[in-house]
Amino acid sequence: MKHNISFFYLIFLSFILYSSQETLKIKKQGMFSAGGSVLHSDGTFDVSNYYTSRAGSTLHVDHANVYYQIPEDDNQLPMVFLHGYGQSRMGWMTTPDGREGWSDIFLRKGHSVFLIDQPRRGEAGQTSKAGTISTEPSDQTWYTQFRIGTYIDNQFTYNENSTFPKGDDVLDQFFRQMTPDTGMDSVNGDQNIDNTVVAKSVAAAIDKAFDITGKKAILVTHSQGGLAGWEVPQYTDNIAAIVAIEPGIGPVVDSDAYNTIVNKKIPISFYYGDYIGEKFTDIPASAMWTSMRSTAYTFQKSYNDEGLTCDIFNLPDEGIYGNDHMMFQDLNNDVIADHIENWITSKIYNGKTNLASFLKYNFITRYLRLLLL
Questions:
Q1: 36, 125 Cβ separation under 8 angstroms
Q2: In 3D, which of 77, 75, 72, 80 has the Cα closest to residue 32?
Q3: Looking at the domain covering 26-357, what would its CATH class be?
Q4: How does strand 268-272 pair with strand 151-152?
């Protein structure tokens, strides 16, 4: 009888702790624009024809839009997230099947999060360069490029052991995340991003994050965002580390971006998912990603030779399988987030972490989910 009472008391206590942990408490949140420039037209503004007059006028353009949240238990470095091509900050906030995205997951770990819409994208659409928006269908192209699967016999397929969430409703939500670039001539096939414009605005966002939190930030980039991400340290001193999720290229050795990163001794990590390598001959995009990943190894050798920290994680080598280019939306996105957090602890905090945060998230969450489910 005493054993039964103790067991039920443990269940009750576990439920209370689990429920408390599941409530994400935000101390502060807000939104701001960062960086950018102002265009000026010649002449004098005609007040009598104010609606049509464009003389003597201004246009505020090429800034980033930043949404941020600070958790009640704010005891880690802030994280600044920069999306990839055709994406917006939404990709960090949720998943196509409605689970928590990395922004919530890292908030629970004690990090403030700053989520960027880069210049000419999403809520930062005002541009100094007029683009065109293409209506040419391309869902199947990006689905294949992102190594989720491909499209055969009028059906979307999934790569073997894929951890991408499945279902027609999920795919509908996923494709509706795609976001056009207002400064890109998409109708004529232009896919170029002005990385310097993006980098300067991201640097301004990081400096603002420092003003708000008093801490340097971890910059997390994805795909195309990685190219601009390498340039960001040229415009700010407030970067604690860079986590690059499948960037299109690694920093080019001896470039200005590379030399700045070396001089500032910024710890770097690369994360690559599954289905990359010569053995994946049945994955259409594998060869391209294998080539792009090779640039990370070139950078790593040179950076490590400088005595600096650069780690490359191929998730299958870490025992994490089935991930595609959108790993932060996959079913095991929490597992990958844990891996990143462990890297932060070992390489930025020198193996030390906030004990209360560690116990609260890692122990209570893992143990009680097993106990209660």
A1: no
A2: 80
A3: alpha beta
A4: unpaired
CB contact at 8 A, 213 and 78: yes
**Close Cβ partners of 96 (under 8 Å, ≥ 6 residues apart):** 165, 170, 171, 173, 174, 177, 329
Q: Measured between alpha carbons, how far is residue 293 from residues 63, 103, 167, 247 in Å? A: 30, 25, 30, 8
Residues constituting the chain? 373
| Token pair in block for residue 272 | 């690559």
Backbone angles phi, psi at 115, to 5 degrees: -105, 120
Prediction pTM value:
0.89
Helices (H), the chain: 2-22, 90-93, 102-108, 139-145, 168-175, 195-213, 224-231, 256-264, 286-305, 333-347, 355-358, 365-372
Q: Which two tokens stand for residue 320?
A: 């994490």
CA atoms within 13 A on the CB side of 71: 22
- Residue 359's pLDDT band (cuts 50, 70, 90): very low
pLDDT digits (tens, 9 = 90+) for 318-355: 999 999 999 999 999 999 999 999 999 999 987 654 43
User: DSSP characters for 135-156?
Assistant: ----HHHHHHHTTS--EETTEE
Give the burial class of 234: count Cβ atoms within 10 A of its Cβ; 0-12 exposed, 13-18 middle, 19 or more buried. Answer: middle
Is the pLDDT at 356 greater than 50? The verdict is no
Q: In the numeric block, which tokens belong to residue 162?
A: 């894929």
pLDDT at position 20 is 47
CA distance 126 to 317: 42
CA–CA distance, 60 with 33 (Å, rounded to integer) = 11
202 neighbors 81 (Cβ within 8 angstroms): no
Lookup result for tokens 């409605």: 98
Mean pLDDT for the chain? Answer: 91
